[in-house]
Amino acid sequence: MFRVLLLALGLLTFALDPAAAQFLPQIAEAEPGEQMLLESDELLYNIETGRVTAVGNVFIHYRGYQVFAQKVAYDQANNRLIAHGGVRLEEPGGNVVIARDINLADDLRDGFVTALRADTIYRTRIAANRADRSDGNITIFEGAGYTPCYSCRRQPDRPPTWAVKARRVITNDDARTIRFEEPKFEFFGVSSPTLPSFTIPDPTVKRRSGFLIPTGLYDRDLGFGAQVGYFQTLGPHQDITARITPFTRQGVLTDLEYRFATAFGAAEFRANGIYQLDPDAFGPSGDRRFRGSFRSRGRFQLNPRWAWGWDTTLSTDREYFSDYQLSSSENFTAASTLYLTGLGTRNHFDARLLGFRVIRNDYIAQEVLDPPAPFSPVGSNLQGKQALVHPVIDYEGVYDGAIVGGELSYALNTTSLSRTETDAFGALVGGVLTPRFRGVEGVFSRTSAAVHWRRRIHAPLGQVITPFAGAQADLFYQNVTDADVPLNDNVFTGRVMPYVGINYRYPWLIAAKWGTQTIEPTAEIIVRPGETSIGNLVNEDAQSVVFDDTNLFGTSRFSGYDRVEGGIRANVGMRYTLQTYAGGFLSAMFGQSYHLAGRNSYRVPDILDATAASGLATDRSDFVGDVTLNTNGGFAVSANGRFDQETFDVRRAEVSATARIGPLSSRLVYAFLAKEPDLGFIDDREEIHGSASLRVLRTTRLFGHMRYDLQDRGFVTGGAGVAYDDDALSVSLAYSEDHGDDANEDIDRTLFFRFGLRTIGDTSFSSSISD
After folding, report:
1. 153, 346, 627, 709: least buried by Cβ within 10 Å?
2. If we measure between CA atoms, which residue out of 522, 520, 526 comes closest to residue 502?
């Protein structure tokens, strides 16, 4: 800052008074073409003393820097730059420095500043009674204070939320450190006792070795614990973090993390573990002395378009992560993958090897089967039911150029996987317990190729006609080792599904002074043969069939390649959109699909029968629709659903609303799924999810969330808390409950406290208070 001030003063003086140059030494030369400006009421030059003085309303502008003062002088004899009277320096980046006096040597290696205050672009403020600079790199601030309470500048008589004050603050430019001597913390004007002196890296340092802010927790099975960490840099591109967490009941959890980066990518490795003092505190999976885990991930560029990487997680047992709160309770698996990706201008390639580590214990089915069914009950050997993918390869792209005036896209997929146990469950179909298979024991592979062509034609009167055509070809390999799975004995099976269709839209626009309305009827017909080999092939990636307004139009509602839609089908619908010039809008859509001829893929069950409750199994599908309203004034609501084509009963619905009314922000979601006995869901599923935040004061808010099961009439999760937030301090206290999926399990109750000081760091404490 001060270097530019001195440079600007010297250059501007020479530029405005050429005769003075023969008496004054040249401090620096202006770069060619640079503009400099000096304004003042008077500009004085003393030939005898060599002193140049600008007096009265001094303003200097140079290279984006601006200096304001009542008096600025350059003393040639003593090589000093002196500024008096409300000196203000504004940097191009936004920092502002205000001082009463500045007295510096012309080389800026020595000098002092009095009554200094600096407001930085990081919304922080630094003040000191006096600052002395020596040796060109050491600055000592006497009676210094620091606060990130930037809003406090508007209320100078009010103490900041928090501040650090010290007898002396010493900065070292070479070591890039800041040392606080005899510091005190002040919170809302109340000062702490004097603390021991400490040193921290200056704000320009992104990585510096040192201790991390500790955190704490309490758990019934772990006892009290406090995590202490140390961060060690190993050069500009490597570092290591060591953490230890002593628990009063289980011993010391050790965690070690190593990271490195190169010009082509980065990787990290993390290992942790504990020698348990009381293994009996956990269930059978945790009843061992040593427990731990290892995780590694990385990504590296082979060139600008190709990259490879990995992400792997290993653990000694399934519940280690949840027992030691290293993952959320909703995570049931930890994936490991090795991948290669390529991204072109009009194409994309992705190849992956995948494995899944189950991180929850097996559970027992609620139904007792007598006599035992010829398939595994729900939940037994979850790890054996997880597939090992070796590999899955996707290649997709769009041809660069027109084909018969239209766009040609293509996709290739190869999937190969295996599992050691059949994943099956029993569904009541007509009162008979019938097996349904999500996956089968053995090896399954498939290679698929698909092409799709379409051309958009704009007809008279605004009509839009889109003819399209395509095909998908598949080759299946099945080596099923479970004799109870009802599949054919063919190891190799081929399948081809061609199709041709046309989509017709006729949008009508109605304009008014307040906005526009659009009415858009749409119709589509698709012609193709019937799907072959239904029920004789494994279905791994097409198990999700969600029929709604988003896929009413299209060639297939299946989620993957293992199933293809066949038969002749027509889709019709109507969309209405209202858009106001004030920003609000209303959008509504309603439609239905019709099976006209051929074999209905959604009526014929496969080994999972995922299509039984799809709403597409009859010649006339269920109705689908959605409505979205946004007032652009803080309120928005959307609803979508599927309705029975005969009775109009709700089969699936979701309604969500968000509102911001004054200090209240809230969100409410209602979800309903009708019972699907063929898929094992014998009851309706109906829930409400809600969250809200109420700002009761300018810096204080109340918040909460809940998930309520309307069928079982009970809470699934819920919580509430209070928080204080300003531009310097963040404090929150929250309580949450998780009732889980099993009524026999304890309710997981957690109390969480967080305390954060902006620019310094956060700490937290969590306590498990389960039954």
Report:
1. 346
2. 526
* Partners of 361 in the β-ladder: none
Enter the tokens of residue 569.
């089908």
Per DSSP, 545 falls in state B
Give CA separation, 350 vs 391, 410, 460, 570, 687, in Å.
10, 14, 43, 34, 37
Using 50, 70 and 90 to split pLDDT, how confident is the model at 748? confident
Residue 19 makes CB contacts below 8 A (sequence gap 6+) with: none
C-alpha–C-alpha distance, residues 166 and 141, integer Å: 9
Pick left, alpha or beta for residue 381 (phi over 0 → left; psi -120 to 50 → alpha; otherwise beta).
Answer: left
3-state helix, strand, coil in the chain (%, to 5): 5, 55, 35
Neighbouring CB atoms inside 10 A of 353's CB total 16
Other C-beta atoms lying within 10 Å of the C-beta of residue 322: 18
Residue partners of 466: CB distance under 8 A and separation at least 6: 454, 455, 456, 457, 502, 503, 504, 505
Phi and psi angles of residue 273, each rounded to the nearest 5 degrees, phi first: -175, 170
Is 419:384 a contact under the CB 8 Å cutoff?
Answer: yes
- Element at 88 (helix H, strand E): strand 80-90
Q: Report the alpha-carbon distance of residue 43 to residue 61 in Å, rounded.
A: 16
Residue type for 272, please? N
Helix boundaries (H) for 208-339: 320-323
Distance CA 286, CA 318 (A): 8
What is the per-residue pLDDT for 380? 65
* pLDDT, tens digit, 9 for 90 and up, residues 3-23: 333 333 333 333 333 322 222
> In 3-state terms, what secondary structure has residue 286?
helix
Structure tokens at 496: 């081809």
- Per residue in 575-611, pLDDT (tens digit) is 999 999 999 999 999 999 999 999 999 999 888 888 8
- Closest by CA position to 416, among listed 464, 357, 475, 457: 475
Is beta strand 42-46 parallel, antiparallel or unpaired with respect to 700-709? unpaired
Query: For position 282, what pLDDT does the model report?
Result: 86
Other residues' Cβ atoms within 10 Å of the Cβ of residue 354 = 18
**Identity at 124, one-letter amino acid code:** T
Question: Per-residue pLDDT tens for 538-582?
Answer: 899 998 899 999 999 999 999 999 999 999 999 999 999 999 999
Q: For 51-74, how does the pLDDT look when each residue is reduced to its tens digit (9 = 90+)?
A: 888 899 988 887 787 889 999 888
Partners of 640 in beta bridges: 626, 654
| pLDDT above 90 for 111 | no
* Phi, psi (rounded to 5 degrees) for 286: -100, 10
Measured CA to CA, the distance from residue 579 to residue 511 in angstroms comes to: 10
Task: Please report the pLDDT score of residue 741 as a whole number.
Answer: 63
Cβ–Cβ under 8 Å, residues 99 and 111: no
Q: Which phi and psi (to 5°) does residue 175 adopt?
A: -80, -15
Residue 41: count other Cβ atoms within 10 Å of its Cβ. 10
Q: Which H, E and C letters describe 41-84, residue by residue? A: CEEEEECCCCEEEEEEEEEEEECCEEEEEEEEEEECCCCEEEEE
CA distance linking residue 496 with residue 664, whole number of Å: 56
398: Cβ contacts below 8 Å, ≥ 6 apart: 346, 347, 407, 408, 409, 410
**Residues 759, 147: Cα–Cα separation, whole Å:** 9
Residue 406 one-letter amino acid: G
Residue 759, CA distances (Å) to 118, 159, 168, 232, 484 in order: 16, 18, 20, 20, 63
Give 681-726 pLDDT, tens digit per residue: 778 899 999 999 999 988 999 999 999 999 888 888 999 999 999 8
Alpha carbon distance 295, 280 (integer Å): 26
Give buried/exposed letters for 595-608 (b at 16+ CB in 10 A, else e).
Answer: beeeebbbbebbbb
